[in-house]
Design a protein that fits this description.
The protein has 985 residues and is α/β, with parallel strands linked by helices. Among the domains are: 12-96 and 314-422, Glycosidases (TIM Barrel, Alpha-Beta Barrel); 106-303, no CATH class; 455-600, no CATH class; 880-985, Sandwich (Immunoglobulin-like), CATH 2.60.40. A hairpin with a 2-residue loop joins strand 9 (167-171) and strand 10 (174-177). Helix 1 (23-36) packs parallel to helix 29 (823-839), helix 15 (440-451) packs parallel to helix 24 (666-679) and helix 18 crosses helix 19.
């Protein structure tokens, strides 16, 4: 296995594919991506999702490429284009869940048809013995728009005959297959009528009775032994074929079944006419339920709280093999060059999954290389290869990055067989240094003054996580507490703990977890990091609940840490471990829903901080922390992705860059929002004694307007986007309205407010003030954007660009950030920049781009120039040392600088500004020239005669001596341009 070192991307470009942007469309722009300096495209999922899916994460068939993207033929043409331009392809693999709201998911349909006896029942994470006894052997389906009885008696549930010989239950667009054993009820319902019409000796009558008899011999849906499962699967299909044949050849049988279906489908004017259908539905492997009340009893694990996304058990080898076969073939054949793994925290054992993925990849590579004659020592070769990676002697065979959200101070688990994360850690690090930390008190006062007293962020998170567990994820908590209650009931030491107290303790500890989840494994190993997280959570739960007996929390702590197994009977140890594993799978969704999807829309002090993986309670960070993180990334995860925008971010990188400027101008910001609120007072509504929008939602709106403003000429489309965003934001906050229980009055009032204040006929003074202030913020925001762009592309790691962000992009949260991108425009602009640079003075071009920075070409130029240099010297950025540089002088706090150095690839010095509004005293002056005064940047190990070349401007710089050491003056480095990429000559 000597040639299994992975391809490491130089720079990736993230694309969102759907029916409006297909494989063929991507192929058209492959030359542009290559010219930009990208090494690998990075796709959203490309396997078959739910029909019409706009994102692809609701996969229904892992064995086929998405036909809406063009299918296999279009993909082959795309692959040819990628190879012609030497571009790789990063696959987005979704191992945690599948979309179940589409009939193309044949696994889920089989589960609904056959229950626990389905071949695919083990594939899904279903509790077949939940607490309500009436649900044993059934899946609860929360799909109804009202109470079951109401829906039934309105005639909205209809029985249908399917062309394949089976029967199904229809509810609007939904179709649910029937248990084949219940076919006998339908076929026998009017059997006497058929016998009277044809006679008992008629071949059709005999065949129908024979079919009914055969149905009676089908194994029950509760039987799960492999032999009986296979028998049921085989014989039910024989039954269907016989029914289909009889239906197609016998008019009397067809009429009889149609009359039977009519009887079952009832008459809305007679409620008792639905008794037949009700009894038939009761025999199925599912229970239909009202979606609003089903959250407490739903018995299949979901992706967060999304009912249409059911969790799969990829920890089973057959499930991993089946769901990953196509992806692994693409990777082993070299068609794809790496993988991004979606939501690994939802998996049973993430570390085991990543290792299995690497091992499976090696086996696929071997199958291609050796065909059917693999060497006899293949297993040993694979073991040795993976052992080398574990010891750090070589890279893992396959380039894999994990979508892991790290909490503050948390490290990526060292036993994960990955190259790193998808980059949210970097996103928040670079965003943090663009916040003026000296304004924290001013923003605290301002937020309280405008909105009113607010809870601390920690208290808000704790309460919102509990809210999620009481509403959206109640069934998952109930499952955990009943599992633990059953364990306690059979253990004399713990049987006095009540179900209610256990449920309470589980909620309190999960709410206090400082990380998304722990990673205790099935082998019972508890690592120090996991012990610290659980002990912290229990300590916090105790502190918040002084009236609750400490023994309860102590018991939960010892159970989660597997320290009290000796108190349980040996035969219960597996169930104790199962409780711990299920606890770990739940804490992540609670954190995500409670923090990212709730608290982040409530705590609006400065929303540039409210980003995935972010910590809004921390008002930014300093440059030293950014440098430390870069050095640690180089040492531990040198090929981790670094990003600033993704399909999941709450705001694009450029929106956050603008809003961050507000931290530098707190007094000005306070004056504006107070004035705006006064100007817009008449457009608020009074609802139930309160105003709408709330002051908090209004404060969020003003930040959003400043961050996304693109001028008066785009108001029509802009108003629609902001109105859509505010509906999502207020419902996600779950304070005045929500998705589950929309407050129609409040929603309408917010929409009226948004459209009213953005109507130039009604809000001229507000819009004029907004336009002037937002343009002023945008001026400084551009330098923030350029800084995070340059640092992202030169810091340790693999820079990732999100679609469209090579120009200014002012998108908000999904679906706003999936809008179509004008790649033709970008390709043309890049071509023109290349031509201009080849034809004219680089210094003049740079000066022009600075003057016209509002059009976005300056960002495109920064990206293309830096990526071109990365292409020329890949080793410098892939493995070169990272040397933090610290300026001294009056403006030292306003610069981020570091060097990348490699023994053979040379050295480059990166210089970028920060807090430019404060640097310029609020004047709209680019951070160049005299603004830097006598600030000096020492450069270590500079030999006499050393010279640097600025790639952005074409200038040559000669270091000079200084009392603090040899180096360069910032006024010289940034004489004409706000960024510098200085190549040591």
């Amino acid at each position: 296995m000597r040639d299994t070192d992975p391809h490491i991307p130089r720079a990736t470009y993230r694309l969102q594919l759907n029916a409006d942007f297909t494989f063929a469309d991507v192929a058209t722009f492959v030359p542009y991506f290559a010219d930009l300096g990208i090494s690998d495209l990075y796709f959203s999922p490309i396997l078959t999702p739910r029909t019409g899916s706009r994102h692809g994460y609701d996969i229904t068939d892992h064995s086929q490429l998405n036909p809406e993207l063009g299918g296999q033929e279009a993909f082959d043409r795309l692959v040819a284009a990628l190879r012609a331009h030497q571009l790789g392809l990063i696959l987005d693999i979704v191992p945690n869940h599948m979309g179940i709201g589409d009939p193309r998911n044949v696994w889920w349909r089989d589960v609904l048809e056959n229950g626990p006896s389905s071949i695919y029942a083990p594939y899904f994470d279903i509790d077949w013995e939940p607490v309500p006894p009436e649900l044993h052997g059934k899946v609860l389906l929360p799909v109804l728009g009202d109470q079951y009885g109401v829906i039934l008696e309105r005639g909205e549930l209809r029985l249908y005959y399917d062309d394949d010989g089976g029967f199904s239950l229809g509810y609007w667009e939904h179709r649910f297959p029937l248990n084949p054993r219940s076919y006998a009820d339908i076929l026998a319902h009017r059997l006497d009528d058929l016998l009277n019409e044809l006679g008992t000796d008629h071949p059709d009558a005999i065949e129908l009775q024979s079919i009914i008899t055969a149905i009676g011999y089908l194994p029950s849906r509760h039987e799960t032994t492999p032999e009986r499962v296979i028998e049921r699967n085989r014989e039910k299909e024989v039954v269907k074929r016989r029914i289909a044949t009889l239906m197609s050849t016998s008019e009397p049988v067809r009429r009889m079944i149609e009359r039977a279906l009519a009887d079952y489908n009832g008459n809305p004017s007679d409620p008792h006419s639905f008794d037949l259908l009700d009894a038939l539905i009761a025999r199925q492997s599912y229970r239909l339920a009202f979606w609003r009340v089903a959250t407490e009893e739903i018995n299949y694990r979901r992706f967060f709280d999304i009912n249409d996304l059911a969790a799969i058990r990829v920890e089973l080898p057959e499930v991993l093999q089946t769901t990953h076969d196509l992806s692994l073939r693409l990777l082993a054949e070299g068609i794809a060059t790496g993988a991004r793994i979606d939501h690994p925290d939802g998996l049973w054992q993430p570390a085991a999954y990543f290792r299995q993925l690497q091992e499976s990849y090696l086996r696929y590579v071997a199958a291609i290389r050796f065909g059917g004659s693999a060497p006899p020592d293949l297993d040993e070769q694979i073991r040795q290869r993976l052992a080398q990676a574990e010891r750090g002697e070589r890279r893992w065979p396959l380039y894999v990055v994990a979508e892991k959200i790290l909490s503050h101070g948390e490290q990526l688990p060292s036993d994960w067989a990955v190259a790193g994360t998808t980059g949210y850690d970097f996103l928040n690090q670079i965003g943090g240094v663009l916040i003026d930390r000296s304004s924290q008190r001013a923003f605290n006062r301002l937020y309280t003054q405008f909105v009113g007293p607010q809870p601390t962020f920690a208290n808000l998170v704790n309460s919102k996580k509990k809210e999620i567990m009481l509403v959206s994820l109640a069934s998952e908590v109930n499952t955990l507490s009943h599992l633990l209650d059953r364990l306690c009931e059979h253990t004399r030491r713990y049987r006095d703990f009540t179900l209610n107290s256990l449920t309470f303790a589980i909620r309190e500890v999960i709410a206090a977890m400082p990380v998304y989840r722990t990673y205790i494994s099935t082998d019972g190993v508890v690592r120090e990091r996991d012990e610290q997280a659980i002990r912290h959570a229990v300590h916090e739960a105790k502190r918040r609940n002084p009236r609750t007996a400490a023994q309860l929390f102590d018991f939960l702590e010892e159970t989660l840490l597997l320290r009290n197994l000796h108190h349980f009977a040996p035969e219960a140890h597996a169930e104790v471990l199962r409780f711990v594993m299920k606890f770990q799978q739940l804490s992540g969704p609670v954190m995500a829903k409670g923090v990212e999807d709730t608290a982040f829309y409530v705590y609006n002090r400065l929303v540039a901080l409210n980003e995935v993986g972010g910590h809004p309670e921390l008002f930014g960070c300093d440059v030293a922390e950014l440098h430390q993180a870069a050095q640690e990334r180089l040492q531990r995860w040198p090929h981790s992705m670094v990003t600033t925008s993704t399909h999941d971010t709450k705001r694009s990188e450029d929106v956050r860059a603008r809003i961050s400027v507000l931290s530098e101008l707190p007094d000005e910001w306070r004056r504006h929002i107070i004035r705006w609120s006064r100007l817009n007072n008449a457009k608020r509504s009074t609802i139930e004694g309160g105003t709408a929008p709330s002051r908090n939602d209004e404060y969020l709106l003003y930040q959003t307007l400043v961050g996304t403003w693109e001028g008066m000429e785009h108001l029509t489309d802009f108003t629609k986007r902001i109105a859509t965003y505010m509906e999502k934001a207020t419902r996600e906050a779950k304070v005045n309205t929500s998705w589950i229980n929309p407050n129609v009055e409040y929603d309408a009032a917010v929409q009226r407010f948004v459209t009213g204040i953005l109507d130039p006929r009604r809000s001229r003074r507000f819009l004029e003030s907004l336009d002037a202030f937002a343009n002023r913020i945008a001026f400084f925001g551009r330098f923030n954007s350029l800084t995070q762009t340059l640092v992202r592309m030169t810091t340790p790691g693999v820079p990732d660009l999100y679609q469209g962000c090579e120009l200014w992009d002012f998108s908000l949260v999904d679906p706003d950030n999936r809008r179509p991108v004008d790649f033709r425009q970008r390709a043309q602009l890049l071509k023109e920049l290349r031509q201009r640079r080849a034809m004219c003075d680089t210094t003049a071009l740079a000066a022009e781009l600075l003057t016209t920075a509002a059009d976005g070409r300056i960002k495109l130029y920064t990206i293309a120039t830096t990526l071109e240099f990365r292409r020329e010297r890949p080793e410098l950025f892939m493995s070169g040392a990272y040397l933090p540089l610290y300026a001294n002088g009056i403006a030292a706090a306003h610069v981020i600088a570091f060097a990348r150095r490699h023994p053979t690839a040379g050295e480059v010095v990166v210089v970028a500004p920060r807090l430019t509004a404060r640097l310029s005293g609020g004047r709209e002056i680019p951070p160049v020239g005299d603004l830097w005064g006598e600030t000096w940047l020492p450069l270590p190990e500079v030999a006499p005669g050393t010279r640097y070349y600025n790639l952005f401007t074409g200038e040559h710089l000669n270091p000079a001596n200084h009392p603090t050491g040899p180096g360069l003056a910032l006024a010289d480095i940034l004489c004409r341009w706000p960024l510098a990429l200085l190549v040591r000559e």
